[in-house]
Design brief:
By secondary structure, this protein is an alpha/beta fold. It has 23 helices and 14 strands. The protein folds into three domains: 11-116, Nucleotidyltransferase, domain 5 (2-Layer Sandwich), CATH 3.30.420.40; 119-296, Nucleotidyltransferase, domain 5 (2-Layer Sandwich), CATH 3.30.420.150; 311-449, Hypothetical protein af1432. The strands form three sheets. Strands 8-7-6-9-11-10 form a six-stranded mixed beta sheet, with helices on both faces. It is elongated. Pfam families: Ppx-GppA, Ppx_C.
């Protein structure tokens, strides 16, 4: 008997046709956290020679026709609709850009090919970055091969923007490869954006392949415990040191740098130079790298308002629960059940506690010997864009504890390195509470409803409703005592008809 195919979620695809590279991304589902299921890049260097000739590179155009034909075939085969091409600086600035687009259109009839203005490119980039970091405050800088978009961010909204000819390929050609000349050009261009100085004391958000390459180099140099560029945050002084090193190091030194991509070796000095001048102009206190930009901005504009307005952390947690959990009605009950343990918690901590309750059953279908580790890694490495690295570590550590991970388990090390002792302790405490809740309830809302916790008179009291199907067995008492000990309290299990009636 043949197996029935599961229903396919809606898909859409976008091609980012830049001055240096071209990339196809296919997304699946209607979601607050864009989920790419296909991602392929080709280096074309369309913008090479544009400064001198005013035209797109001939070799790049020939290769682009082949690559774009493949991307069109992939998008059709995967059922991606809509499928669009967004062309940026090189195509819009080149005299032969319109002819190139016409040739592409002939190879891909019916496909929308949009040449974005500088203002549109900045808007897409900002929307995509804010999709991943919705409370951003400061300046966004999106670097490509042909241009640099800078956008003012305030209260999680995009403000003024400007496009500058400071893409890594264009800056290299404008300066003739001379770094002193490149610095003077960058300073002159950035001087034309007076509002950059208004970001003093806030953050500088970096988007674009050349900047992501810088992040990976810095991660390896710092032995950072989570190899994830999105939301990677670097102090101002560390970012300045990295930028200075890349802008001044000989090519041979760059080639030997761990993590330095071979195809970006020529770009690294100019990316470092632009970063150094941005740090000087903005006086930003930190640099925050973002993996979401123009393509994610395109995706989010196609989502209904109800999805765009979702809180990204809660949305990511809900999506994990929907894919891997057993009872979608249990997490809201867990949120209320754990509330008495955390009176007076800050709103940011409440958000994390609620997210952990949603994620707390995602190992239910895994092999029991590996549930703790699998759930930990699933949370730590999830694709949700709205989680900074400490939040990922907090949630992963707590979920692992819910599955009884030993405190010294080696796989927990990345999370412990990303958290201070207080945060790690809070995550472990919540994990213990959730472990107790699942032991009592068998992962069901109805059984959990027969229990509740109270902190009273120096005790952690577990109240049990008579005849509800739950009782204070050995496993329950053991978990209750561990939780009480972690809170510095004595443990007590209470079965009381009057208490049950009051509830």
């Amino acid at each position: 008997m043949p197996f029935a195919s599961p229903p396919r979620l809606p898909r859409c695809g976008v091609v980012d046709l830049g001055s240096n590279s071209v990339r196809l991304v296919v997304y699946e589902g209607h979601t607050r956290n864009p989920l790419p299921i296909f991602n392929e890049k080709a280096v074309l260097r369309l913008g090479r020679g544009l400064q001198a000739t005013g035209k797109l590179n001939e070799e790049g155009m020939a290769l682009a026709l082949t690559v774009m034909h493949r991307y069109h075939a992939v998008a059709r085969a995967m059922g991606a609709h809509p499928f669009e091409v967004l062309a940026t600086a090189a195509v819009r600035d080149a005299s032969n850009g319109p002819a190139f687009v016409a040739a592409l259109q002939e190879r891909m009839p019916g496909v929308a090919i949009r040449i974005l203005s500088g203002e549109e490119e900045a808007a897409y980039s900002a929307d995509g970055m804010l999709c991943g970091i919705p409370d951003a405050e400061g300046v966004l800088a999106d670097i490509g091969g042909g241009s640099l978009e800078v956008i003012r961010l305030a209260d999680g909204r995009r403000g003024e923007s400007q496009t500058l000819p400071l893409g890594v390929i264009r800056l290299a050609e404008r300066s003739g490869g001379d770094m002193a000349r490149a610095r003077a050009l960058a300073d002159a261009d950035l001087d034309s954006v007076p509002w950059l100085a208004q970001a003093s004391g806030s953050d500088l958000y970096l988007v674009g392949g050349a900047f992501r390459a810088l992040a990976r180099i810095q991660m390896l140099q710092a032995n950072y415990p989570l190899a994830m560029v999105h939301h990677y945050t670097v102090a101002r002084e560390d970012a300045r040191t990295l930028a200075d090193m890349l802008a001044t190091a000989p090519r041979r030194t760059l080639e030997r740098l761990p993590g330095a991509p071979r195809r970006r070796i020529d770009d690294l000095p100019f990316a470092g130079m632009v970063l150094r001048r941005l740090l000087r102009r903005t006086s930003a206190r930190r640099v925050v790298f973002s993996a979401s930009g123009l393509r994610e901005g395109w995706f989010m504009r196609r989502m209904p308002a109800a999805i765009r307005e979702q809180e990204p952390l809660h949305s990511a947690a809900w999506e994990l629960a929907a894919r891997h959990g057993r009872d979608p009605e249990l997490p809201p009950a867990l949120i209320e059940w754990t509330r008495p343990l955390f009176r007076g918690e800050r709103p940011a901590i409440t958000k994390l506690r609620e997210a952990m309750c949603w994620m707390s059953d995602i190992g239910s279908h895994d092999h029991p010997e590996f549930r703790a580790e699998q759930a930990f890694l699933r949370v730590l490495r999830q694709p949700g864009l709205g989680l900074d690295h400490p939040s990922r570590a907090f949630l992963a550590l707590g979920v692992a504890g819910r599955y009884d991970a030993g405190p010294d388990a080696a796989f927990l090390r990345p999370a412990r390195l990303l958290l201070d002792l207080e945060s790690a302790g809070r995550a472990e405490l919540l994990g213990l509470a959730l472990g107790l809740a699942y032991t009592l309830s068998a992962g069901t809302r109805n059984l959990l409803a027969g229990t509740w916790l109270r902190v009273e008179d120096g005790k952690l009291a577990l109240h049990l409703r008579p005849n509800s199907g739950v009782f204070a067995g050995e496993a329950v008492i053991r978990r209750l005592e561990r939780l009480a000990q972690a809170m510095g309290l004595a443990a007590a299990a209470v079965e009381d008809l009057e208490e049950a009636a009051a509830e």
